[in-house]
Amino acid sequence: MSQLANLLTILSLFCGFCSVLLYLAGEFTFSAYAIILSVVLDGFDGQVARKTQTSSEFGKELDSLVDVVSFGIAPVFLGYIFIYRKFYFLAIAALFIYLLCAIIRLARYNIATEAYQDNCFNGLPTTVSGGILASFVLVYRHKDIPAQSVNTSFILLVLILACLMVSRIRYLNLDGLKKALGNILKPVILALFLIFFLALYFNKAGILLFSIFLIYLIFSPFVVKRLNNV
């Protein structure tokens, strides 16, 4: 059990690695889902470490390095290769800013004290920003949208996420989410899984995932503020 959390972290890295290989092979949908799976695994590893009381500095550093790959590099190249497919300077500049902000966000997280991170993160988590970019690709895969509109929307989204990652805006972590939802946490998770499989069946999973990430991005800071005032 002592290495279970690190094993989940390594599996998250494997998903990020597979995402890179998949988009290089032109399998953009599976590449995006690999990033989404990495998001799920990243959420579990920290919880497992706490429950088994096996948290360590090594595990923390390993998790951050994996996050750079799975939620920094993988979604950046997935979005660029899928949407642009050729040299586009503005997109390259925006995506580099995103990657830089993701690394700064993770470095800042590593030096923060546990008390400072109680129930919330300072700045948008890289897991969420990576998930948003991956689910954006899933949405675009099944929509007849003019290319120019997508290009502009993607660059704006990337820059907004980059700013939010290095901002001081507070977002719920899993402990804060447990506190906010209380006894309905498990039913909510079960309902989301059931809705996800239904959406997958009807080819609407991308829209659902993008909506969930967007709801977290918009409403999470308000929930954090409410928890701090309780």
Q: How many beta-strand elements?
A: 2
Structural class: mainly alpha
SSE order, as H and E? HHHHEHHEHHH
Treating each run of at least 4 consecutive H or I residues as one helix, how many helices?
9
Tell me the fraction of residues in β-strands, as a range: under 5%
Strand order across the biggest sheet? 1-2
Low-pLDDT runs? none
Which CATH class?
Mainly Alpha
The CATH architecture designation is Up-down Bundle
Assembly type of the shown chains? Answer: single chain
The count of domains is: 1
Compute the gyration radius: what is it? 17 Å
CATH fold description: Four Helix Bundle (Hemerythrin (Met), subunit A)
N- to C-terminal separation?
36 Å
The CATH homology group name: CDP-alcohol phosphotransferase transmembrane (TM) domain
- Biggest sheet character: 2 strands, antiparallel
What is the residue-mean pLDDT, rounded to a whole number? 87
Proportion of residues in helical segments: over 70%
Structure, described:
This protein has a single domain (4-229), classed as Four Helix Bundle (Hemerythrin (Met), subunit A). A two-stranded antiparallel ribbon has the order 1-2. It is built from nine helices and two strands. The termini are far apart. The longest helix has 27 residues, at 57-83. By secondary structure, the protein is mainly α. It has helices at residues 4-24, 28-51, 57-83, 89-111, 126-141, 147-165, 174-181, 185-201, 205-229, and strands spanning 120-122, 170-172. The model has no long low-confidence stretch (mean pLDDT 87).
